[in-house]
Amino acid sequence: MLPELLLMVALGQASDPVSAALARVEQVNAYRLVLRSQGRRGEEVIRFAYRRPGFIRLDLVSPYPGAVVIYSPETRRVRLWPFGSPERRAGLSLSPLNPLVRSARGHRVDQSDVASLLRNVQRLQRQGQLRLLGEAPVDGRRSHHLVVEGDAGHRVGEVAGYELWLDAETLFPRRVISTDGRGRVIERVRLEEIVIEPDLPAGFFTP
């Protein structure tokens, strides 16, 4: 009981730590990180960058090394450079629904940012329950460990449960495990090399 109370105080919102994390992330103007995702179809490694109000850039490391994907909230289109070098090629202009720019697990580029992830956790929590598991180190940093499980029959997509580790300082997720209604792992995600408010080059999202 005591670790749970301490965690509530640390998160700043005793009744809703997921909302506390979401509120913190939504205040950030830009960030970049390395995303490692392990699922039923293998591993994806992506260098991810975000800038408000919703610009997203993915530089793929695996399984399609060199490919670059950029989403613009101004055009609501995704630009794809399958072989890299967006500064020298026009790229393909696609809908966010196009299978060419969706992940192996069907994730959309325009919904791939950290805030979108936390909103999905929040949606599950509204018809479910939250369990606080105390603190646990992740990559040498203090992190808050929690689980959100949907009520019987409640899902967000195919996800019935999330296990999260939130960085104790930034509240950014550092690890996320999603499970289905039978408790089977759908996806394991690690967010590494997180940099908040990075100095991104001019034209990084609009080459």
Automatic annotation (TrEMBL):
Source superkingdom: Bacteria
SUPFAM superfamilies: Prokaryotic lipoproteins and lipoprotein localization factors
Signal peptide location: none
Keyword annotations of the record: Protein transport, Signal, Transport
Domain called MucB/RseB N-terminal: residue spans: 107-202
Subunit structure: Monomer.
Protein name as catalogued: MucB/RseB N-terminal domain-containing protein
